[in-house]
What we know:
Elements: H1 2-12, H2 16-25, H3 28-43, H4 69-74, H5 78-85, H6 90-99, H7 105-110, H8 114-125, H9 132-149, H10 157-176
Amino acid sequence: MIGHRRAAVALYGLSEVDRRWILDELPVTDRDSLVQYLDELKDLGFDRSNLQGVSGDGFALVTDRDITATDRLRAATAAQMFDILRDEPTSLIAQFLSIHHWPWANDFQQFFISARQEHIRSALASVNADATERCNFLLESVASRLNEVADMTAVGLDEKVGQVLSRIKSLVKSWTR
């Protein structure tokens, strides 16, 4: 039962939607035990904000706020990025491409006609690498646009959620043995 208590503490810090999703994936006996402990934590008045991201054994859970703009953008597809950036000035596209080694960058450039590809390559050569404020602004702005046009699962975040679920399931199993 001590394992179920630890798992309940880990789950208690999650959002209600995430907690319900994880509980629904567990066997009924584990789920029933965890729901009792979760109710007990709530009845005792534990502050959920102090427990967010903690699993009881020091393992930090991935939460939405842990997924940075860069993570979202790295997980995007070349087609999604083309939809967002295709009408932007070549200099802005070059500045954005220079921020990171994007896994989709080569495929992204292939969406443009040859002449525009060459303009982007030329602009990349003259990018101001010291434009930290501009780069941060670009990252946040483009990530925001990605969020507006794409379902979050379509950009690969479902894989991270699956990893978290697998980790929680393994913790529940190890705690209850």
